[in-house]
Write a structure and sequence with these properties.
Elements (H helix, E strand, L loop, with lengths): L11 E2 H9 L8 E4 H4 L3 E2 L13 E2 L3 E4 L13 E2 L5 E3 L11 E3 L4 E2 L6 E2 L9 E2 L20 H10 L3 E5 L2 E6 L4 H13 L3 E6 L4 H7 L7 E5 L10 H8 L1 E5 L1 E4 L5 E5 L2 E6 L3 H20 L6 E5 L4 E2 L5 E9 L2 E7 L4 H6 L2 E5 L5 E2 L4 E6 L3
Helix pairs in contact: 1-7, 4-7, 5-6
Length: 369
Amino acid sequence: MVTTQRLPVSLTPLDAALTAVLRDAAPVAPVELPLADALRCVAAEMPRLDAHPPHDVAAGDGWAMRAGDLVGASSYAPLPLAGPPVWVEAGAAMPIGADCVVDADLVDSSGPIAQVLGETVPGQGVRHAGGDIAQGCAVAEAGQPVRSRNLLLARAAGWPTLRVRRPRLRLVNIPNGEVTTSLIAEAARLAGADVICAEAGRDVSDVARALEVDGCDLLVTIGGTGVGRTDATASALASRGALITHGIALQPGRTMAVGRMHATPVIALPGAPDQAFAAWWAVALPLLDRLSERQPRATRSLPLSRKIASTVGVAEVALLACRQECWSALAIGDLSLDAIARADAVLIVPGTSEGFAAGAVVDAYMLRD
């Protein structure tokens, strides 16, 4: 006789499941990573930058001069120079006493005495000290993802590494969840995690053997959370660690499970892409953000173009698109892959709510922050 795992009669409220999985979850220790590897990781506290450039430099190629010496110069009244001008390349330090850079075509050096054919103002063609990076500027604010523009500052300052928090996430694919595993792995990397993928069989012993937490800060499984004859992830988790809850009042994603092995949290996501996507945003991503010590994610407040209806007692995931400065609902509770691909934001309607009326202003998490 085959014994299959079962969902409880009463599903755990989403808020209760999230509180349980976040309990005792602490940020991982910062690490120093090469700049390319630090991209998208969450910045930790780090020293402030010195001013850049450290002194006045030429912003472009030209002749370094003193603007006060060129007053009245024009093509009709060329001004002869007392001595030969100094040529500077872009980025070169300005000579002592020079306060501007004159374009090459404004100086006629064809004769025995160089002549200036136009006047200028102090500071023209000059990048002043601190003009690119002010003294005390931050490469990236702690708790914010590192973006390419942050790496620009680090490279300009000569930093080879950045101090970031990068949780180690072990992602276990139960067979037939390959598409979903790729979706979640990519989402986790975009969130700054260091992802290691592994495979497991479908029976309890195979899944249990794959539930290894050495060297990882978060264990996520894909598939095997339902009540089918070959679903065994929740049972395997219960045999290896502590099963906190199996079955959450979340649509889609109600068959997900959460638990713990020693001090490491475990999130068991359903195998279907839409259910895993919803459960990832509702539970797994908030946990990953806690481990990264990330500041709250970006939201956008807009009115709804039409009503969103929801079932009381079940939190429902809605996908939204921005249309003419309003949120337009693409899907709620039943998420097509096309809707997931086209959505601009995600909204989790609380289980205590019947939804939102047309025109109601709601805060939605941006999918493209």
